Amino acid sequence: MFGNCHETRTRFISKACLERLERASDWLVENVLPIGWIALLTGMFWIGDRSHYHRLYYALLLTPAALAIFLSPARLKALFSSPLLIVFILFGGYVTLSIAWSGSANSAGALAKRPLYVLFLFFSGGLLALQSPKRLMSGIQTGAAIATLLGAASLGLYVRDGMPGRLAGYGALSNPLLSSHVYGFFMAFWLADWFLRKRPIAPASLFSLLVFGILVVATGSRTPLVALAACCAWLMLAHWNRRSLILLAAVILTGAGVLIFHPEGLFSRGTSLRPEIWRAIWPQIHDAFWFGHGYDTPMRIVIPDAFADPHNLLLGVLYDCGVVGLALWLSLYAFALAFAWRNRKEPLVMIASTLAVFGFMAGMTEGRDFLSRPKEHWFLIWIPMTLLFSAGMMHKRKDVHAS
Question: What SS3 string covers the chain?
Answer without folding.
Answer: CHHHHHHHHHHHCCHHHHHHHHHHHHHHHHHHHHHHHHHHHHHHHHCCCHHHHHHHHHHHHHHHHHHHHHHCCCHHHHHCCCHHHHHHHHHHHHHHHHHHHCCCCCCHHHHHHHHHHHHHHHHHHHHHHHHCHHHHHHHHHHHHHHHHHHHHHHHHHHHHCCCCCCCCCCCCCCCHHHHHHHHHHHHHHHHHHHHHCCCCCCHHHHHHHHHHHHHHHHHCCCHHHHHHHHHHHHHHHHCCCHHHHHHHHHHHHHHHHHHHHCCHHHHCCCCCCHHHHHHHHHHHHHCCCCCCCCCCCCCCEECCCEECCCCCHHHHHHHHHHHHHHHHHHHHHHHHHHHHHHCCCCHHHHHHHHHHHHHHHHCCCCCCCCCCCCCHHHHHCHHHHHHHHHHHHHHHHHHHHHC
